[in-house]
Design goal:
The complex is a heterodimer of chains A (about 230) and B (about 700). Chain A is an alpha/beta fold and about 230 residues long. Helices cover about 35% and strands about 20% of the residues of chain A. Chain B folds into 5 domains: about 220 residues, Rossmann fold, CATH 3.40.50.300; about 110 residues, Elongation Factor Tu (Ef-tu), domain 3; about 70 residues, Alpha-Beta Plaits, CATH 3.30.70.870; about 110 residues, 2-Layer Sandwich (Ribosomal Protein S5, domain 2), CATH 3.30.230.10; about 80 residues, 2-Layer Sandwich (Alpha-Beta Plaits), CATH 3.30.70.240.
Chain lengths: ~230, ~700
């Protein structure tokens, strides 16, 4: 009941994509913004949305410890479900938790073969098979091309889609396509690129590169006080 | 006894298992000349470390009970409480922290901030205990103090700042550079007792200067004078820095970090200096008590020896001469011959002997004044009791005591054991509030309850060793609970009016799950117009309450139920307390079945630290045990796997974990929450319960 309502209320539907996940299996997408604007918050909401529909999400964090990632999920979930009764929320929270697996790596020790090894540890023993993966905190530049290719192959092989957070820098100029110069060199690998841009009191979610679909209706926003996605300007 | 409270330090040494805190304490006692020889924890010399006074602790190489001990360093009196590291004994840690003013957080330079350090840190936060950190085992291969300082920041949120720099690391660890005095310290002599100060090695000078600047920068936040001195670029006196660091430490906004290797006798003396310099004296900490005469209003206690006595009994021990009670005096002077009152029982006692403890030896003293920790003889009390001067009615804030999650039946093997067993149980329950015992009235078995398998195991062992009691144990049983999931109405009439004195009572209303808070039972009387006369309302409540002990579903305790009664009926002659109690019981049974009862089981937060090559296997093990893996954290050579696993599946886990990781993984476990059990498991439990009942009958 509550579960269904939360799924229906999801403003991400407004982005007007064909699939609920925005990305089809085997595709990779990126969320760009400066530090602290809300990349992780947006992706955690995509993940929660997947988890509510019984999809398994593997969250890989290169910066934060497991507890902190967990906090993101529980905070956003409780904000989302805020107006419902306590017991109902808690039991729903308990029931979606098994659909999430958090893995943290240290930035310097993260490699694609290592991730593949960990992933097969999970899938072969039947512990966890993700359909969605979030990689938070990877540094991007041209040298990542081979890694990204490998990750894309991994996504295709396992039938999963992968979201990345990409941190942009204020001092960096953007190219003709609106993408930061360092990122545009590898942008062709991504099926979808979203950008978070603070404008006045809100954070706008903009589609920089995508599979031909255009957002319908009013622009999507992130509410900076709750970091939740909302579909209207206040 | 020192006359000024400023020179007193009550400190604890807490850390993860095997970080070396007992070894460190041992060295401290040696350098402060309280002991004259050093014994190792798992001693080859068969003596064992001095602080581990219990036989069992010596054998297992772990510290179970916190022994309080006292030493002197550079004119300061330091009371040390050696705290246990295992999560199963956290009540001990919590009790110690309650009476401490400051703590040394010991971390392993290889393991870093481990799960238990996180738990201990949370406890320190709860009791607002300022701390300094000591990164031990800098001589071990893989030692990386910089990484540990990073973890103090990222995992514990400490503003950790290095006060020292290592000279060499791992096998090459030779000494430390003090960033305050800008001197190198080497520890010489057979046991490192001679501290030699020297110039900083040339190759480390530049690094030391930059580290010193970082340290002063961080400290300047707490002192305007220091900031001024930096801006004026004048020479900065040491006292100014010490003062700023101390201020920050007392506010818990600055954690000075020291280095060393207790086992190799390095870095311990500078740590003792730091205890004197940076940790608070009893007067720096505000302690409060609750005034029972004024609705538990908070009263600030002053560390003044001339005021009436307020003292807290925080630990009991059964010694050769009877019960030994460790007390911390918060106010007044606890002297021989003084009269004190136990606030809980109201009993007056005259203080006999006052002693100062040094592990298992003692020293008689005349009096213990405010701020001190001492031990009393022949005082009848439980741990956590408050003692005050006659006329006061204060109690120290009650300590947070978790409910037990596991139970075990014990059977004495012979008559002698039977008598000693009750003596032992009586003692243990007084010592440890998380350890409980009762007799099951159906099976007549003696049941002990506690916080984990190891917790109960240790007590069974202690019974054997200290009381010569041979007992057999049953299979550990998990503390399941029943609760309801939906609202259900009841309208029950208890009627017995055929011959003899009649009984009549009708109770109507509803029961529903409690959604907010963690109360076990709420009774709400909404009867209007006297359909149930007021004098029978308590009987109704009692009747409902009686049903909670054994749930109708599987006879587990019922929790989280709110009962609302809003109607009923009575009879002028036949209604009685008994009749309404019976009606309430009937109403409970009637509604309970309709309220969709379910069984809840305790879920433990299990944290396994394993070498990365075994992490897949470890996750498999947890998964087999119905565990939900929350995450896997990469920590260099180690991986930390965190999971939530039902307690019922964790029996024997340590053995399995050891054998599948070549003994290289370790785990900690603590209670997390109660969660509904899956249907298939519920059926299995129902079968077990039925079987047990049958065998008991």
């Amino acid at each position: 009941m509550l579960k269904k309502e939360l799924i229906l209320r999801n403003p991400l539907r407004q982005l007007g994509f064909e699939t609920e996940d925005i990305l089809p299996a085997g595709a990779i997408g990126a969320v760009l913004s400066h530090a602290g604007v809300g990349k992780t918050a947006l992706l955690v909401q995509l993940a929660l949305n997947g988890m509510l529909r019984s999809q398994n999400v593997l969250h890989i964090s290169l910066n934060d410890p497991v507890n902190k990632v967990n906090l993101w999920y529980s905070e956003l979930f409780h904000h989302l479900a805020g107006r419902y009764e306590g017991a109902q929320i808690n039991s729903l929270w308990e029931s979606v938790l098994p659909h999430r697996f958090i893995m943290t790596f240290r930035v310097e020790s993260f490699t694609v073969p290592k991730l593949e090894e960990r992933l097969s540890d999970l899938t072969e023993q039947g512990i966890f098979s993700p359909t969605m993966m979030i990689i938070d905190g990877l540094q991007f530049d041209e040298s990542r091309r081979s890694d990204l290719n490998a990750l894309k192959a991994l996504a295709v092989k396992n039938g999963i889609h992968i979201w990345f957070t990409v941190r942009t820098h204020r001092h960096e100029s953007s190219g003709s396509d609106g993408l930061p110069v360092s990122f545009s060199a590898i942008a062709d690998l991504f099926d979808l690129v979203l950008e978070l841009k603070p404008e006045r009191a809100d954070v706008h979610i903009k589609l920089l590169r995508g599979s031909g679909s255009t957002p319908v209706g009013s622009p999507l926003l992130l509410d900076p006080s709750t970091m939740l996605i909302k579909d209207k300007e206040l | 006894m020192s006359s000024t409270v400023e020179k007193v330090r009550n400190i604890g040494i807490s850390a993860h298992i095997d970080s070396g805190k007992t070894t460190l304490t041992e060295r401290i006692l040696f350098y402060t000349k309280r002991i004259h020889a050093i014994h190792d924890v798992k001693g080859k010399d068969g003596v064992g470390a001095t602080m581990d006074s219990m036989e069992l602790e010596k054998e297992r190489g772990i510290t179970i009970a916190s022994a309080a001990t006292f030493c002197e360093w550079q004119g300061h009196e330091i009371n040390i409480i050696d705290t246990p590291g295992h999560v199963d004994f956290t009540i001990e840690v919590e009790r110690s922290l309650r009476v401490l003013d400051g703590a040394v957080l010991v971390l392993c330079s290889v393991g870093g901030v481990q799960s238990q350090s996180i738990t201990v840190d949370m406890q320190m936060k709860r009791y607002k205990v300022p701390c300094i950190a000591f990164i031990n085992k800098c001589d071990r291969s893989g030692a990386d103090p910089a990484r540990v300082i990073g973890q103090l920041h990222s995992k514990l949120g400490h503003n950790a700042v290095a006060m020292q720099m290592p000279i060499g690391l791992e096998a090459d660890f030779r000494g430390v550079i003090d960033l305050l005095s800008m001197k190198a310290f080497y520890f010489e002599g057979e046991n490192g007792e001679q501290v030699r100060s020297d110039e900083i090695p040339a190759e480390l000078l530049a690094a030391a200067r930059s580290k010193r600047e970082e340290m002063i920068d961080a400290a300047s936040l707490f002192s305007d004078e220091l900031t001024e001195a930096i801006l004026e670029e004048s020479a900065i006196p040491d006292a100014l820095i010490i003062d700023a660091v101390r201020k920050g430490t007392l506010l818990r906004k600055f954690t000075p970090v020291f280095l060393g290797s207790a086992y190799k006798n390095k870095g311990v003396q500078p740590l003792l200096d730091a205890v004197n310099q940076y940790l608070p004296c009893p007067a720096d900490v505000e302690n409060t008590a609750l005034d029972l005469d004024h609705e538990e209003a908070l009263v600030v206690l002053l560390p003044d020896s001339s005021l009436p006595i307020v003292a807290l009994a925080f630990k009991l021990e059964d010694g050769t001469y009877g019960q030994l009670t460790y007390v911390r005096v918060y106010q007044g002077t606890l002297a021989k011959g003084a009269v004190i009152v136990n606030t809980r029982t109201g009993k007056k006692t005259k203080v006999g002997r006052v002693v100062r403890m040094h592990a298992d030896q003692m020293e008689d003293i005349e009096a213990a004044s405010a701020g001190y920790i001492a031990a009393l003889f022949g005082i009848e009390c439980a741990s956590g009791d408050t003692f005050v001067s006659p006329g006061l009615n204060l109690t120290m804030t009650s300590m947070f005591v978790p409910k037990p999650v596991i139970s075990l039946a014990i059977f004495p093997k012979n008559n002698k054991s039977q008598i000693n067993m009750s003596k032992a149980l009586n003692r243990f329950t007084k010592e440890d509030p998380t350890f409980r015992t009762h007799v099951d009235d159906e099976t007549n078995e003696t049941i002990i309850e506690g916080m984990g398998e190891l917790h109960l195991e240790i007590y069974v062992e202690r019974m054997k060793r200290e009381y010569g009691t041979d007992v057999d144990t049953g299979k550990p049983r998990v503390a399941y609970r029943e609760t309801i999931t939906q609202r259900a109405e009841f309208n029950y009439t208890h009627k017995k009016q055929t011959g003899g004195s009649g009984q009549y009572g009708r109770v109507a209303g509803y029961m529903e799950p409690i959604t907010e808070g963690d109360e076990d039972f709420i009774f709400d009387n909404q009867v209007r117009g006297g359909s149930i006369p007021t004098q029978y309302i308590t009987a109704c409540e009692k009747g409902f309450h009686q049903c909670l002990a054994k749930g109708p579903k599987m006879e587990f305790p019922v929790t989280g139920v709110k009962i609302v009664i809003n109607d009923g009926a009575s009879h002028a002659v036949d209604s009685s307390d008994m009749a309404f109690q019976a009606a309430a019981r009937g109403a409970f049974r009637e509604a309970y079945a309709k309220a969709k009862p379910v069984i809840h089981e305790p879920i433990m937060k299990v944290v396994v630290e394993t070498p990365t090559e075994f992490q897949g296997g470890v996750m498999g093990l947890l998964n087999q045990r119905r565990g939900m893996i929350v995450g896997a954290q990469d920590e260099g050579p180690m991986t930390v796997v965190e999971a939530q696993v039902p307690l019922g599946e964790m029996f024997g886990f340590s053995t399995v974990l050891r054998s599948s990781t070549q003994g290289k993984a370790q785990f900690t476990m603590e209670f997390a929450l109660y969660r509904q059990i899956p249907q298939s498991i519920a059926e299995k439990i129902a079968e077990e319960v039925a079987l047990r009942k049958k065998s008991a009958a």
